[in-house]
Amino acid sequence: MSPSSKFLLANTFLTLSLAAFVYPTSSVAQTPAASSAAVANPLLMAWEGPYGGVPPFDKVQVSQFKPAIEAGMAQNLAEIQAIATNKQAPTFDNTIAAMERAGQRLDEVQTIYGIWSGSLSTPDIQAIQREMAPRMAAFGDQINQNEALFKRIEAVYNSPDKKKLTPEQQRLTWIYYNNFVRSGAKLDAKAKTRLSAINQQLAGLFTRFSQNVLADETDSVLVLKTPADLGGLSASLQADAAAAATSRKIAGAAGVITNTRSSVEPFLTYSDQRKLREKAWRMFYNRGDNGGAHDNNAIISEILQLRAERAKLLGYATHAHWRLDNTMAKTPEAAMQLMEQVWTPAVARAKEEVADMQALAKKEGAGADFKIEPWDYRYYAEKVRKQRYDLDQNEVKQYLQLDKMREGMFWVAGELFNFSFSPVTNVPVYHPDVKVWEVKDKTSGKHIGLWYFDPYARPGKRSGAWMNAYRNQQRLDGNVTTIVSNNSNFVKGKDGEPTLISWTDATTLFHEFGHALHGLSSNVTYPTLSGTSVVRDYVEFPSQLLENWLPTPQVLNRFALHYQTGKPIPQALVDRIEKASTFNQGFETTEFLASALIDMKLHLAGSQKIDADKFERETLTQMGMPREIVMRHRTPQFSHVFSSDGYSAGYYSYLWSVVLASDAYSAFTEAGGPYDKPVAKRLTNNVFSVGNTIDPADGYRKFRGRDPKIDALMKERGFPLKTATTKPAPAKKAPAKKS
């Protein structure tokens, strides 16, 4: 996450992605001090080169970050002070629009800093993070708590002239006012001082939490010592393990399983070495929970206490109530209602899945006392899948080449959004693995933006998959195009050989590309409202939606090609994939919902002192969590929730968004199919292009013609159907909307 001033205010960016949404610099006059600093520090210079300027990745030195951030903050504060002390009466142009222009140089610095922090982390970077995180939090509070500035914003918000503004300007004014209030602008001096102290403490704790998880991910590997340790793994997985051993310089090993999901989950699925599966499972699921210097439990307890105190200061019952006040759900109760509606059938299905696996294990000769353990679940689920549906995921994987799947995503983007992608080599990148494409409108040839792709795992890169926005689309001062990226952690194969990915990985690839398309489709005037800068439980909607296009015949027949023969995936195999589409949904839904429910319950607990491990264990028992399943993100490694405020009391949003996505995809299937042009146009016009210029509930209704229903999700997952809607609570006072 890149905590620039605008985003401390808006609080709507993709924290999981460490996104740094930044703005252009052409209209900003530098202070003399900043101009002088820029001479010696290229991070403080305007982005130059083609496509409206690109990040100067080839000029970055770690030693430049701290002075660049300090200079950027000083310049930003000077700009803010000029706005706050303006002698002219407050207007939209001299206050709100001026805020949009302020801090642009700092935003660019923080974009690059965020990339190095998340993708190229070193001890030097981590030391800077530990020092600067509290300072940047204090910097944000200097802006949020600037009384003169808030009075100007409030004056514009309450002015009778506001009705003369465009709908987008009214929306932006409301967002600034609302976010300043939510950030403590109306508190008294004593409360503001305490609030700032809390924010600084939290920033330090978030950094420590993230670095502890990264340390466990970087330092821990499972060494496969002999060929027997590779038992059950396909040739491609064995090659991946061998390549990991080579990259880690572990001589004499048959292979290495790194501590990332993309490496561990395939091993848990196919390895026939049960003791090694257990070791891999414990390595991955105990990240941040091993005692010693990298244990996160005490940090979690501190974070929860501080969040509860902050919520009280701001006038909310709990941190969960504060966080959800500014979402589609509006209240924790609404989010809990949705989760509980799905939890019961998910657990029931998971128990059926366990019974099937237990029976198969017994049939294969397991002892009478054998019980499925968490490290057995994926292994036996895959056996049941193969037996019941004649579907071997290893067979599917032979047709899923990373490069071909990427081409398939480009093709889908062309069909739905009229985009074309062309590789470019005239821009610098921060690592040799990163490739860049120019995005254009297929019809007009108009430049839309740039898409960077960083696909492979490496030491110092956090695990998972995410989207970044290096620059947001906007038209405040000329037409500024966007720069976005997708980031994954695939295991890189040998040079010259294709990287094969699993069906799950291919789905995640499409998911993250959905975020990128959300940014690329943006068509707004003001940068704060651009692209993915929407409320937390709406931001995952476009990405969840795009997953639906992976299994379409148009994609599979054209891009799911065997890595050796080049032949398309057989229809018989596609049919088996379709028949098995609801298989294991009990497990997948339960492991996700367990994390989402624990997140919400932790933050509804208020100020009570919490032992994270004990709370997790006891609450899961009370919920009826199957003993064979573990939370997708256990509390000590739950970076969504404890590396920032971003998804705190908000992990439910993935479920909220997938309800929207399932219902939205039904609009295509009810019409002319997945590539229906009129439906795609409505989707672009009302969801992907509008950013945060309209209330998301209104945007969805304009696209769908009604509020979303949960029916499509329940049908997709094979759960009992209960007709209901996921209807947001009535919106608070907001500006006029576009017609």
TrEMBL record:
Highest taxon in the source lineage: Bacteria
Pfam families: Peptidase_M3
Domain Peptidase M3A/M3B catalytic as annotated: residue spans: 267-718
Region forming the signal peptide: 1-29
Compositional bias of kind Low complexity: 722-733
Record's cofactor remark: Binds 1 zinc ion.
Keywords, sorted A to Z: Hydrolase, Metal-binding, Metalloprotease, Protease, Signal, Zinc
Cofactors, names only: Zn(2+)
Keyword flag Glycosyltransferase: no
Region (Disordered): 717-739
Gene3D superfamilies: Collagenase (Catalytic Domain) (3.40.390.10), Endopeptidase. Chain P, domain 1 (1.20.1050.40), Neurolysin, domain 3 (1.10.1370.10)
PANTHER family named in the record: DIPEPTIDYL CARBOXYPEPTIDASE
UniProt record similarity statement: Belongs to the peptidase M3 family.
Protein name according to UniProt: M3 family metallopeptidase
Organism: Hymenobacter cellulosivorans
